[in-house]
């Protein structure tokens, strides 16, 4: 079992601004205030999707900003609320605040929804500020800014297959050619000290996780070479490699 990590930025939409307008109608010389409220900024929502098995999509896109609310309009018209930004994440994703490390959500069930950045409230228009004392208020609120933060997503990954071979055989070279993984490649044994994972995309919706592991030499299980160190760094690996997700291909 391995962990896949990504860091992404999320921002809820800003609230729309309230506006200052007054009724302008024929035969109504002093129309009252009629500025509408701004719409609510949209939330960024994670939803658990069973068809995803890795965080690889987040390596290509790191910024997720939800729509802002529309500004209020004249004639007491409310601005439209922003449309929520729904982001699919694999079941099993842990969501942490990237700075504090605080656990914000543990996504364990399919279709589970979590708001990870709230949109800001819309500002009130001047119609809301009318009072007996002030019949023609010239004030309106700005929308609240949406919540924003960096998140760290973590996912436990099972490798489906592993490249096993003698040191310096070219294992890291292979994974670097067939996946996005970029391990160190060098012309000496034991270049690779920790497993590297790569996602191999076969066709849309079909992928598997390949592991490049340190070179194994005879007696590795007894501690020869990097034997013990390696097996300790990924204890569950051997069973993962042996019984990893073949069913995904079925
Ligand atoms: N001639 C030749 N050299 C290769 C080939 N594949 C990899 N190499 C070279 O062999 C050396 C070792 O490659 P790596 O991919 O680092 O080998 P590795 O199996 O990951 O090695 P360890 O991590 O040390 O176990 C590098 O200098 C590569 O450029 C190949 O197909 N032909
Ligand atoms: Mg290597």
β-strand number: 11
Distance between the termini: 22 Å
CATH homologous group name of the largest domain: GTP1/OBG domain
Low-confidence stretches: 232-250
The bound ligands are: guanosine-5'-triphosphate, magnesium ion
Strand content: 25-35%
Please tell me what the overall shape is: rod-shaped
- Major sheet description: 5 strands, mixed
Question: Helices and strands, in N-to-C order?
Answer: EEHEEEEEEEHEEHH
Domain count? 2
Helix content range: 10-25%
Adjacency order of strands in the biggest sheet: 3-1-8-5-6
Indicate the radius of gyration in whole angstroms: 27 Å
Number of separate helices: 4
CATH class of the largest domain: Mainly Beta
CATH topology of the largest domain: Spo0b-associated Gtp-binding Protein, Chain: A
Q: What integer is the average pLDDT?
A: 85
Under the CATH scheme, the architecture of the largest domain is Distorted Sandwich
The structural class is mainly beta
């Amino acid at each position: 079992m391995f962990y896949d990590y990504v860091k992404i930025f999320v921002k809820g939409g800003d609230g729309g601004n309230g506006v200052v307008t007054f009724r302008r109608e024929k035969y109504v010389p002093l129309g009252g205030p009629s500025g509408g409220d701004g719409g609510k900024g949209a939330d960024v929502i994670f939803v658990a999707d069973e068809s995803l098995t890795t965080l690889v999509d987040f390596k290509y896109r790191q910024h997720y900003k939800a729509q802002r609310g529309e500004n209020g309009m004249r004639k007491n018209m409310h601005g439209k609320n922003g449309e929520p930004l729904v982001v699919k994440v694999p079941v099993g994703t842990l969501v942490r605040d990237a700075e504090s490390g605080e656990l914000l959500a543990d996504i364990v069930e399919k279709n589970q929804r979590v708001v990870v950045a709230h949109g800001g409230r819309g500002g009130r228009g001047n119609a809301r500020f009318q009072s007996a004392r002030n019949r023609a208020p010239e004030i309106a609120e700005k929308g609240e800014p949406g919540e924003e933060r960096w998140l760290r997503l973590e996912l436990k990954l099972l490798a489906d297959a592993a490249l096993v071979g003698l040191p310096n055989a070219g294992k890291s070279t292979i994974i670097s050619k067939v996946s996005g993984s970029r391990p160190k490649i060098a012309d000496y044994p034991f270049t690779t000290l920790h497993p590297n994972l790569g996602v191999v995309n076969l066709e849309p919706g079909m992928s598997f996780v390949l592991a490049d592991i340190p070179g194994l030499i005879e007696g590795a299980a007894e501690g020869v070479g990097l034997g013990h160190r390696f097996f300790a760094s990924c204890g569950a690996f051997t069973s993962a490699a042996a019984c990893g997700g073949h069913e995904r291909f079925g």
